[in-house]
Amino acid sequence: MDQDTLQVMLREAVRQTVTEVLQILLDADREAFLRQHGGRKNGYYPRKLETAFGQVKLAIPRDREGKYYPSLLQPYARRQVDVGEVAIALYAAGVSQRKAAEVMSLLLGHRYTHETISAITDQVLEAAEAFQKRPLPEEMAFVYLDGFFLKVLREGLGVERAAVYVALGVTPKGERQVLGCKIAFG
Predict the structure, then answer these.
(1) Domain definitions of the chain by residue range
(2) Distances 130 to 110, 119, 124 between C-alpha atoms, Å
(3) pLDDT tens for residues 149-179?
(4) Which end of the chain has fewer surrounding CB within 10 Å, N or C?
(5) 40 backbone dihedrals φ, ψ, rounded to 5°
């Protein structure tokens, strides 16, 4: 398999992960809205959204009274700044939840509470842990290993370059799956 095909496979795996994270964020946002304003859930409606990783299909949550609209989406907008990515980046940089809420409010023009930031980071961390503990398929036709470098802020150590190793598997049916990833510091 050539480098271009591998890049397409990795991009698709990232797009699927972005879809999952955005869906988690939308559900957490509705929960926060209902806790603050009351009301009840009322299902979802479909919407396509262009992200930096390609088009994703989302199920937008709604409430019975029709008062809720996701704070991380602009009405009728079809492009999105990933709020979860911003929240996780701030959290990873060691910014407190209250300060992260202030920064996101300034950057994105919407007021976020520290409780919302906490819920977002908790759900994303839970999803990451579930991903790491999921059972792997017993059979793979191919397994590709690749890596890239990131700058990572380590508590008490400052910014360091870290290698991120990614294992990508292809099942006998041709389905692509990210099997795992590992961060290694030099």
Answers:
(1) 3-133, 142-185
(2) 30, 16, 10
(3) 877 777 778 778 888 888 888 888 888 888 8
(4) C
(5) -135, 155
